[in-house]
């Protein structure tokens, strides 16, 4: 790759953190955001890697996220629910604040949930389910987004791309993790196709008149489609209900009304549910982790791959060889570091 630069994970972390500090974020926000963005690059998840920095800073500049927010734990000791108010900041530091409390409650009760409210959320969810698995817990994470996806059979954007992630701990090896948008693809993927000047695969989107399109511009102005037709549409709707309405936060159409644009990172809530496999299997035959391994071996034994296998392989490579950014990405990082919010149109 001509003009490419390779950085260690730590060097990229410092550079991204410095950019966010220059953009006015406090240390808690800057550190948590950098961790999740660098994790995206490290694991070859470009749709939620360094290209998201600009959108986060644009949201700061537009006054739609508080760069100096300090998340607060909302006391509710007697319940298996942990609630964290992000206080108008980004979701990631709020998740980090609530995680130990969620883990403790899940280990005590067998199941616990965390609601994060009043947050701006633009990141991938796998870092959060992985954090649960590192504590020996299985977990589900979900959140709305903004109205950009037509429900199956409809033609107008209503649901969000509503990501849904699951993790299962595997002692001694990487966890089983999947994490995907409930639209055919993440909106970030469409943006990357637009930037590369490439047509979208068929079946991803419709234009503003409801006709199928492979033009990324027309797709961004129209609506994305749900994965698996009515099935993705129903799961996306469930996410609006559980991670929007049930936790007393915004649904995807409400987010779009609030922001008035999809060029800023969305403001809403997030739901995280943690399960203790030991607690659920207690008194039943067999060790749940050993039984899970039999299942995974049977999947891989057919020649299929486990979700996140590609990502963990990319992580191994980045850890030993560093992360390579292309010339345009490096120039953009340099510009953001020099100019901070002044670099944002
Ligand atoms: P992908 O379609 O790229 O991947 C979905 C999952 O499927 C990954 O876990 C992936 O593992 C796995 N997978 C892919 N191919 C295979 C295969 N052949 N066999 C087995 N598993 C496979 O995800 P999306 O584009 O839908 O989403 C990308 C990211 O965008 C997610 O991290 C999501 O959280 C994020 N997102 C965030 C939103 C937000 O509002 N915050 C909104 C929408 C999306 P692997 O990575 O190893 O390929
Ligand atoms: O890629 O669909 C997406 C997305 C929306 C908000 C954050 N990521």
What does this structure look like?
The chain is an alpha+beta fold and 345 residues long. It has three domains: 1-61 and 309-345, Malate/L-lactate/L-sulpholactate dehydrogenase, four-helix barrel (Hypothetical Oxidoreductase Yiak, Chain: A, domain 1, Orthogonal Bundle), CATH 1.10.1530; 65-179 and 230-307, Malate/L-lactate/L-sulpholactate dehydrogenase, NADPH binding domain (Ribosomal Protein S8, Chain: A, domain 1, 2-Layer Sandwich), CATH 3.30.1370; 184-225, Hypothetical oxidoreductase yiak, domain 3 (Wheat Germ Agglutinin (Isolectin 2), domain 1, 2-Layer Sandwich), CATH 3.30.60. Helix content is 44%, strand content 16%. It is built from 13 helices and twelve strands. It has helices at residues 9-22, 27-42, 52-61, 91-109, 126-133, 187-196, 216-221, 230-245, 252-259, 277-281, 288-301, 309-321, 327-339; strands at 5-7, 72-74, 81-85, 111-120, 138-142, 164-168, 176-180, 205-206, 212-213, 223-224, 267-275, 323-325. The strands form three sheets. Strands 2-3-4-11-5-6-7 form a seven-stranded mixed beta sheet, sandwiched between helices. Strands 9-8-10 form a three-stranded antiparallel beta sheet. The chain has a two-stranded antiparallel sheet with strand order 1-12. Helix 1 packs across helix 2 and helix 1 packs parallel to helix 13 (327-339). The longest helix is centred in the N-terminal third of the chain and has 19 residues, at 91-109. It is globular. The mean pLDDT is 96. The chain binds NADPH dihydro-nicotinamide-adenine-dinucleotide phosphate and pyrrole-2-carboxylate.
């Amino acid at each position: 790759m001509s003009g490419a630069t390779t950085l260690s994970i730590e060097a990229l972390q410092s550079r991204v953190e410095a950019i966010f500090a220059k953009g006015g974020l406090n240390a808690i926000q800057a550190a948590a955001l950098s961790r999740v963005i660098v994790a995206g690059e490290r694991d070859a998840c470009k749709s939620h890697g360094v290209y998201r920095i600009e959108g986060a800073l644009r949201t700061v500049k537009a006054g739609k996220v508080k760069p100096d927010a300090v998340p607060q734990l909302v006391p509710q000791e007697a319940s298996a629910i942990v609630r964290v108010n992000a206080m108008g900041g980004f979701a990631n530091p709020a998740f980090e604040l609530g995680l130990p409390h969620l883990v403790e409650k899940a280990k005590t009760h067998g199941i616990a949930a965390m609601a994060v409210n009043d947050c701006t959320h633009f990141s991938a969810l796998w870092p959060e389910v992985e954090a649960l698995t590192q504590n020996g817990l299985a977990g589900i994470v979900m959140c709305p987004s903004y109205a950009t996806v037509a429900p199956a059979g409809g033609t107008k954007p209503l649901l969000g791309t509503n990501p849904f992630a699951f993790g299962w701990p595997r002692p001694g090896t990487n966890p089983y993790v999947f994490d995907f948008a409930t639209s055919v693809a993440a909106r970030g993927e469409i943006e990357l196709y637009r930037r590369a000047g490439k047509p979208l695969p068929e079946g991803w989107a419709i234009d503003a008149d409801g006709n199928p399109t492979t033009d990324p511009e027309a797709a961004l102005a129209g609506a994305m489609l749900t994965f698996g037709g009515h099935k993705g549409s129903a799961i996306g709707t469930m996410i609006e209900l559980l991670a929007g309405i049930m936790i007393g936060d915004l649904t995807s159409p409400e987010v779009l009304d609030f922001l008035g644009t999809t060029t800023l990172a969305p403001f809403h809530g997030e739901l995280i549910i943690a399960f203790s496999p030991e607690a659920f299997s207690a008194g039943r035959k067999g060790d749940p982790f050993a039984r899970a391994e039999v299942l995974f071996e049977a999947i891989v034994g057919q020649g299929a791959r486990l979700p996140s296998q590609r990502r963990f392989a990319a992580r191994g490579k980045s850890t030993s060889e560093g992360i390579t950014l292309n010339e345009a990405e490096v120039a953009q990082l340099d510009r953001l570091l020099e100019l901070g919010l002044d670099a944002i149109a």
